[in-house]
What does this fold into?
Amino acid sequence: MKVISKQRNSRMCVICGLDNQAGVRAHFYNMEDGSVMSRFQFAVHHQSYPGRVHGGMITAMLDEMGLRAMWSKHGCEDDFGVTMSLTTRFRKPVPYEEFLIAKGELLRESTKFAVICSQIFNLEGTLLAEGELKYLKLDPQEISAGAVVHEEMPYLIADDVTEINFSK
It folds into this structure.
């Protein structure tokens, strides 16, 4: 699927923070169908049992796709909010040190709320985990007093990613 544009990364987020040495350091792309996608790898220090990623890290990636799905659908990074609920379904073991694809899609929204579907696949297109998020839209100042969004999300690093594909 064709990439339309790239989203910003933060400094310290456990999923997208480029300065967080223990994080995933994932990059996110706005796709031609209005969804958001990421091609990423979990690291060995994200494990639960040997060979498997911890469920909390899997859920954190699914959660990250929530806000980013809104950004992708709206074509801008002006919307913010918090997750009110997230139902995670673990379908298959999620491996670390292998490339994976995350996808987030805004299903429906109102002026205050949004519902997002997020998924993690292997490169063969097998669904490994999925989540449904209910999101409350808020101003960044309501989320974290004193937060200056583009100081927290300063990185927009160009790369040559023009498509993200996997078998399905």
